[in-house]
Amino acid sequence: MIEQAPVNALKLWRSSGRVERCHFERTGHTALVSGNSIAGIDISHNVIRDAGNNGVVVWRDAAGIDGAIVSNNNISAVRTDGGGSGQNGNGINVFRAGNVVVATNTIHDCAYSAVRCNSASNAQVVANNCHEIVEVALYAEFSFEGAVIANNIVDGAGSGVVVTNFKEGGRLATVQGNIIRNLVRHEHEVVDKRGVGIAVEADTIVNANTIEGAPTAGISIGWGQWLRQVAVNGNLIRDAGVGIAVSANGKSGSVLITGNVIGAVRHGGIRLADFDKLIGPELDDASTKASPAVVRGNLIS
């Protein structure tokens, strides 16, 4: 057990091997840091509680293959003492490290994200159980190519899953089989008030997710002009502001929305949006070519 470390409890640099069955408590900065790992590192079956800024950080000085596996850890009570806009406050933070697997962790009570992958290509975020997350629970952002976010449970967060920053090259993802519920809008925020189950932008499939209690939108597709080739099919959405919102300004590619079941929505099942403002009538099978979306066979009640 390592407790009351003033900065990082354990920092490994250019290492390989395994860190398992350790207990980190009351850490000033980050409980466990892996930097520039040589052949990947296995971080598993650890308990991390009460960290000042992050639970686990997998970091590389430049974007490249890392291969770390972060699994079966229990991480809780992560603050954001260092401030910032997301570099702190995360259960697991993967930065520039490619081919990392984050699986079957239990993560709760984080000031920002449960799992945040920044510029981390080919990330797999699978079967994690997340609750009481203040911002976005599961995040793939900035200049990444390739992310699988599948079979996770998010219960209580600002937003559930966000795959974003096509402007910076963020693209290519599958978001599948997640249960996301009990989301909370941040009314004090000027730009992004959260409350979205799943938000995606480019080259992404969103399939077979269950979303309940998303006060802004069950699924948000695109952000302004940042939209390309998204397929949304077979999802169940209930108790949401709008079921599915599609950016009306997307210029680069179309959206296919099929076979979704949407119920108990307050502002329509499928709508166009100008950033966070809904515009126009409900989209349905007879929508005009003016819409970037092809809408077929959805059940809205």
Strand content: over 45%
C-alpha geometry: elongated
Output mean pLDDT. 95
- Annotation field: number of helices: 0
Helical content (DSSP H or I, runs of 4+): under 10%
The radius of gyration is: 19 Å
Largest sheet: 20 strands, mixed
Low-confidence stretches: none
For the record, give the distance between the C-alpha atoms at the N and C termini, rounded to a whole number: 53 Å
Would you count the extended β strands for me? 31
Task: Summarize the structure in words.
This protein is mostly beta strands. The protein has no helices and 31 strands. It has a 20-stranded mixed beta sheet that branches. Strand 28 and strand 29 (277-279) form a beta hairpin. It is elongated and about 60 Å long. The mean pLDDT is 95.
Quick recap of the structure?
This protein is mostly beta strands and 301 residues long. Helix content is 0%, strand content 60%. The chain has a domain at 127-300.
Question: Secondary structure elements and their pairing?
Answer:
Elements: E1 2-3, E2 10-13, E3 17-20, E4 23-27, E5 30-35, E6 41-44, E7 47-51, E8 54-65, E9 69-71, E10 74-78, E11 90-98, E12 101-103, E13 106-110, E14 115-118, E15 123-126, E16 129-141, E17 145-150, E18 153-163, E19 171-176, E20 179-183, E21 196-200, E22 202-207, E23 210-221, E24 228-233, E25 236-247, E26 255-258, E27 261-265, E28 270-274, E29 277-279, E30 293-296, E31 299-300
Parallel strand pairs: 1-4, 2-5, 3-6, 4-7, 5-8, 6-9, 7-10, 8-11, 9-12, 10-13, 11-14, 12-15, 13-16, 14-16, 15-17, 16-18, 17-19, 18-20, 18-21, 19-22, 20-23, 21-23, 22-24, 23-25, 24-26, 25-27, 25-28, 26-30, 27-31
Antiparallel strand pairs: 28-29
